[in-house]
Specification:
Length: about 220
């Protein structure tokens, strides 16, 4: 079964970030998930623009940049100018007065436009934006921190998005509390990719290659 696995780099070992990137790529990771937080839209600070620049400089695989910031249109050029064609930028529609304007800047730069949907945001609230994005990152936890509990009512949101993704031409990605049970259930149903953090990938007594191989070879 073909699905993507992306590493949540806020969970990486920053004592040797270059080696972390190399080990993840050697282990078969598909992309690197970069969480940018401003302390306003979410009550936390995570990765910085310099972290993004450094990982983009050394990584061969694409970056998925998740902007958890207020009014991303004000700073979007800072991120666009440090990314390559094929990289993704996700914004939260609630964080911007006119999210389509910000998404158009991402598209014009040759990057992949995406939106992130919070657990409390309905599909109906973002339906029109689904016509212009290529990726939808569904948050199964409230954004801002790693190692949170899965919110079970989010499953209904996946049902709604899976029913319309082919008609509207977008792919669905899972972010938050991603265990092997979630991949086993939702990958066969059409979820394209999964962000892996402390639940499955980081802080384990296995190499990244062993973990990623076990995920890809599991029985469905």
């Amino acid at each position: 079964m073909n699905f993507e696995l992306t590493a949540s780099m806020m969970c990486a070992n920053y004592g040797n970030l270059e080696q972390e990137v190399k080990n993840l790529e050697a282990g078969g990771i598909d992309s690197f998930h970069i969480d940018i937080m401003d302390g306003h839209y979410v009550p936390n600070f995570a990765m910085s623009l310099n972290d993004l620049r450094y990982i983009r400089h050394i990584a061969k695989k694409p970056l998925d940049v998740h902007l958890m910031v207020e009014h991303p249109n004000n700073t979007i050029d800072l991120f666009i100018n440090n990314l390559h064609s094929g990289d993704t930028i996700y914004i939260h529609p609630e964080a911007e007065y006119h999210p389509s304007t910000t998404l158009q800047k991402i598209i014009d730069a040759g990057l992949v436009p995406g939106i992130a949907i919070n657990p409390g945001t309905s599909v109906e609230n973002v339906r029109m934006l689904l016509r212009i994005v290529k990726k939808v990152l569904v948050m199964s936890v409230n954004p801002g921190n790693a190692a949170q509990m899965f919110l079970p009512y989010v499953g209904e949101k996946y049902d709604q998005l899976l029913a319309i993704k082919d008609k509207m031409h977008f792919d669905i990605y899972w972010d938050g509390a991603c265990g092997i049970d979630k991949i086993r259930e939702f990958a066969p149903r059409g979820v394209k990719g999964f962000v892996l953090g402390t639940t499955l990938l980081f802080g384990k007594n296995k190499t990244y290659g062993e973990t990623l191989k076990a995920i890809r070879e599991m029985k469905f």
